[in-house]
Write a structure and sequence with these properties.
The protein is α+β, with helices and mostly antiparallel strands. The protein has two domains: 3-95, Phosphorylase Kinase, domain 1, CATH 3.30.200; 102-285, Transferase(Phosphotransferase) domain 1 (Transferase(Phosphotransferase), domain 1), CATH 1.10.510.10. It is 37% helix and 17% strand. The protein is built from twelve helices and nine strands. The strands form three sheets. It has a five-stranded antiparallel sheet with strand order 1-2-3-5-4. Strands 6-9 form a two-stranded antiparallel sheet. Strands 7-8 form a two-stranded antiparallel sheet. A hairpin with a 5-residue loop joins strand 7 and strand 8 (155-157). The longest helix has 20 residues, at 115-134. The chain is globular, with a radius of gyration of 19 Å.
Length: 286
């Protein structure tokens, strides 16, 4: 259901507690909390991120998240339905994905994804990235924890709190932001970076989904920041367990020079030619 179909103009201007019933808390962090909620008029289940705010102002990262999510029309990006700014909190109302995140599934089920499952997730993530990058937007925090799955196995990118917009006059950003283990070398080196930084992070996420952890997970994040630009690109710990196609895909994502690294669009063309993509049957996996 699109945002236009879910919330009326009157509902967007009303008290959110009169529009939604909070059902359960899904998670909590320093920012606030995420809840599963029900839209009272239609009984549609949604996710609501409730962020604590001070001085009647939304934190900059959440203003960015709303800006990046607003108007997205891609099946593989979590949809924004609307937002409400109250005296002490910001409510961000989003599409609910019942399959939780890829990271949550690995933790709960105590197992990693198969290559076939990773290929489906990667295909969907690349669709989302191709759409974002076409809008000159960078996600900047691709990892398993930010890939949500629906009940029928559709993967969607979420958490746009650190996403960035490239202007026509500035094709590369220089801000160091993201999660260290997934961060592209060019971000760490502060030489300017563009949308291909997300492709590097996807390569690291493939390793994470195959092995349960990203490279350098066993060292301090600040040390990893120094190692990522200095060391050769990471690889799977035991490559003999994985197919040449999967290893080659990761290697293409993890080319250190972004000028030589393929775009999301180019990787989509390769995956279409090499892989038979089907939606995942999570019931069978779980």
């Amino acid at each position: 259901m699109s945002a236009a179909q879910l919330l009326t103009t009157e509902e967007l201007q009303a008290d959110p507690e009169s529009v939604f019933a909070l059902l359960e808390k899904l998670g909590e962090g320093s920012y606030g909390s995420v809840h599963r909620a029900m839209h009272r008029r239609t009984s549609t289940i949604v996710a609501i991120k409730i962020v604590r705010v001070d001085n009647d102002e939304a934190p900059e990262s959440n203003q960015t998240e709303i800006m990046i999510m607003n108007g997205n029309q891609c099946e593989h990006l979590v949809e924004l339905y609307g937002s409400y700014l109250l005296e002490d909190s910001l409510w961000i109302v989003m599409e609910y994905c019942s399959g939780a995140s890829a990271l949550d599934l690995m933790r709960v089920c105590k197992r990693m994804f198969s290559e076939a499952q990773i290929s489906v997730i990667c295909r969907h993530v690349l669709e989302g990235l191709d759409y974002l990058h076409g809008k000159r937007k960078i996600h900047r925090d691709i990892k398993a924890g930010n890939i949500l799955l629906t009940g029928d196995g559709v993967a969607k990118l979420a958490d746009f709190g650190v996403a960035g917009q490239l202007s026509d006059s500035v094709s590369k950003r220089i801000t160091v932001i993201g999660t260290p283990f997934w961060m592209a070398p060019e971000i760490i080196q502060e030489v300017g970076y563009g949308v291909k930084a997300d492709v590097w992070s996807l390569g690291i996420t493939c390793i994470e989904m195959a092995e349960g952890r990203p490279p350098y997970h066993n060292i301090h994040p600040m040390r990893a920041i120094f190692m990522i630009p200095m060391k050769p690109p990471p690889t799977l710990e035991d490559e003999s367990k994985f197919s040449p196609v999967f290893r080659a895909f990761i290697a293409r994502c993890l080319i250190k020079n972004p000028a030589d690294r393929p775009s999301a669009r180019e990787l989509l063309e390769v995956s279409t030619n090499q892989c038979h993509i089907e939606r995942i049957c999570w019931d069978a996996w779980l």
